[in-house]
User: What shape does this take?
Amino acid sequence: MRNSILTIVAIISVATCPVFAQEGKTTIVESANQNTSYYDVPDFPQKFSRRKPKNVILMIGDGMGVAQVYAGMTANKGNLFLNNFRHAGFSRTSSANRYTTDSAAGGTAIASGNKTNNSSIGVDRDNKPVPSIMEIAAANGLGTGIVVTTNVLDATPAAFVAHVPNRNMMPEIAIDFAETGPDVFIGGGIEYFNDRKDGRNLLAELSSKGYQVCDTITELVKVRSGKLAALLHEKRVAGRGDQLQVTTEVAIDILDDHKKGFFLMVEGSEIDGGGHDNDMAYTIEEMLDFDRAVGKALEFAARNRRTLVVVTADHETGGLTLVNGDIGKGMVTGRFSTTGHTGIMVPVFAYGPGAEQFGGIDENTSFFNKFIKLLKLNK
Ligand code: MG
Ligand code: ZN
Assistant: This one.
């Protein structure tokens, strides 16, 4: 109740503030969480192939700033799979037209190396399509995949596949997935594929192109090779269980068949939701869920030794500050200062061959060129 009253106050203050919204004055919301399901984190080996990476697993925590990471770390009594990453840096997230980006411009910058306007997907600021790292990887013969907890047509995954001026153009984004999508994609949004105004059945089109199409975890875990379009139902972690970990493992297992390597993007989509809701329990459950998926990528990368794992965020959400905590008890109290995104730098973590390239401070557009170079892709 307190949250919603403060949210209303915040909206009014943003609407009436003439220059810059000073949301911090009115929207400070305190929220605490005591985690009760802790997990152990092993130490992963730090020995990799001396050759360039063959595979890249890019993991994006939507809305994951340093405070979200440390909230998760505190809640899990100091342990995160992220603790295994020896190379870390910061990504500057501003978009072409805003200090504070949205996931569309943030995703497009990471995917294509181009700063674009907020709401734009896979196009530059003149609405000209720009190729994504995933499309370039596919053209170079690598396997490609997307695993998310939200709708696959949502801004972050769409930025790797689609080229539309506005993130709300879901029916058009679905066509791009059906016509030029990655080899494996797993997430929500089935209604945009099979319940369409234009009468097309994109699930049937995917099947006829050789995709194995399914809508349950039970079916998708049976898929071990080939192409996969799995359109599941979106829920919060309590209803999803270990879906992100399982689907990350399935995608890696399928894509590892590609002799030239693969490029996989995994998104912890809903850390952002915890920030927008100013809800510590929601933030932490999504943060820890994402971290456990990072653990699955690490398990593979540690065995494979030619896989680079990069973990970052598109932006921070909620303006989260940690004001109190107890690592021994897995308890943490945070204060949110906005129900929107913020403009601060976000963390970058890297593990595997080429990881040293990701230290320091760089623009969010830098990922693209680093991946192109490390994977030796022809643009
Ligand atoms: Mg997202
Ligand atoms: Zn958001």
About this structure: The first strand starts at residue 29 and ends at 34.
